[in-house]
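for the writeup, i need someone to sanity check this before i put it in the appendix. the sequnce is what the collaborator sent (i think, or maybe the updated version? ugh). structure was predicted straight from it, no edits. if anything looks off just tell me and ill rerun, i have time this weekend
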Amino acid sequence: MLPGAHEALAAVRRHGGRTVVVTGKFAPNAQRHLDHPALDVDHLEGWVWGVGKADALRREGASVYVGDHVHDVEGALAAGVISVSVLTGGSTRDELLAAGTHVVLDSLADFPARLDEHVLDLRLAALEERLRELGSLLVAFSGGADSALLLAAAVRTLGADHVVAGTGYSDSLPAVERDPARDFAESLGVEVLTPRTHEMDREGYRENTGQRCYFCKAELIETLGPARGRARHRPRRHRHQRRRRGRRLPPRHPRGLRAGGGDPAPRRRPHQGRRP
């Protein structure tokens, strides 16, 4: 058993994926190889080689294929999926890269972290696509990690001219947390609205049950609702002003499943102030 095999399969499960083995081995023999170490696999396709693996990969809806040989790379590329190569077989790093693999890993133990990064990149891409569909956005911005990530992604995708941040000021938001939240938003070139909210007047909020967050958000949405049009009708800044503020945006570093297996560039984290 190669180190990291169980963990690699578990990583796929953790993201809601299926595990498929596509191999040149005679299928009954390959099944014995899976049963003996109790590997968790959904489907086995045997007796296929090279580009012939592409049909099985497409049929099973694979998006990433992990192998250790240049013929595994051929199958992945023919299927139009990401090729991940591990240096546990007879092919060298240079041979795998020359064959066109997207990623080279030293060990299967490296796969879970790379898969996490890959899935994150896919989700960020989906978020940016949705933001482009919206065109402009008013972000209910608490200063916490979630809303800070959304705010930064919106600015990067749409530009600061098309994004407004709204932070409800009330007794539930400590005064010491207000300045850091505002500073972060303004560092992105975003206008910050700070209407007064009155969630304390809502009985459901004061009861402090599991529904407390609902009443807090309901108050914020009703308060910010009249201001949402400002996200669509803000005056455009002069071009040189947008460029100057654009330099403040945190850059998006490519991460995840990349060729060569180099360390990914660090991703800046948004301000992680506490939520109100």
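The chain is about 40% helix and 10% strand. The first helix runs from residue 5 to 14.
thx in advance!!
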